[in-house]
Design a protein that fits this description.
53% helix; Four Helix Bundle (Hemerythrin (Met), subunit A); mainly alpha
Length: 196
């Protein structure tokens, strides 16, 4: 068992955000699994499956094992257990010797291990917003955590129109909107109160 006093801050943050997203997955009601989400290509089940499949992809990248087929159903009969197992495996992979300072393939090209952790944090935050919006829940992550992630994103990702890349064009958000809403809008989500 991992000694939590030895967990680097960036991995502890990943754990915090992952636990919050797991709470949302656990809160999905049976009738909501086929509900639409802000990611128009996915219903709720497909959205959660995408997150779990992506987590499995990162584990394979770090460990140098065969990449999972992203078209598979990773959730089975227990989405919460599947999510917990995948995020737990990735937590363990992040803590393997040399990983945080190593360099690995990612959907955005070669990235340091710490960068992979940050990518998963962003993924869990934005898809937590998606899942919460679809199911009437709210991701329980401190505002200052989200503000910090958003500030880092603004330095690393161009704002405004994005003709290519993994993110859609930045969408408008009121300056006094909650940090998670502003993060979602920065990554291309149209806020319901803004007209869509």
């Amino acid at each position: 068992m991992t000694d939590t006093t030895q967990v680097p801050d960036v991995v502890a943050l990943y754990d915090r955000v992952s636990a919050a997203l797991q709470e949302l997955v656990a809160g999905v009601r049976p009738e909501q699994w086929q509900a639409s989400t802000p990611c128009t290509e996915w219903d709720v089940r497909a959205l959660v499956n995408h997150v779990v499949g992506g987590t499995r992809y990162f584990v394979a990248n770090i460990r140098g094992t065969e990449q999972p087929d992203r078209s598979l159903d990773f959730l089975g009969d227990d989405a919460v257990a599947a999510f917990a197992a995948a995020t737990g495996d990735l937590h363990d992979a992040f803590l393997e010797p040399g990983v945080l300072d190593g360099v690995f393939a990612s959907p955005l090209g070669q990235r340091p291990g710490r960068g992979l952790v940050q990518m998963r944090i962003v993924e869990h935050l934005v898809h937590g917003w998606d899942l919460g919006t679809a199911t009437g829940q709210r991701l329980d992550v401190p505002a200052e955590v989200v503000e910090g992630v958003l500030a880092g994103l603004r330095q690393a990702v161009p704002g405004g129109e994005r003709p290519s890349g993994p993110f859609k064009d930045e969408q408008p958000a009121p300056p006094d909107a909650p940090p998670l809403d502003r993060l979602a809008a920065f990554l291309g989500r149209r806020l319901p109160t803004i007209g869509g």
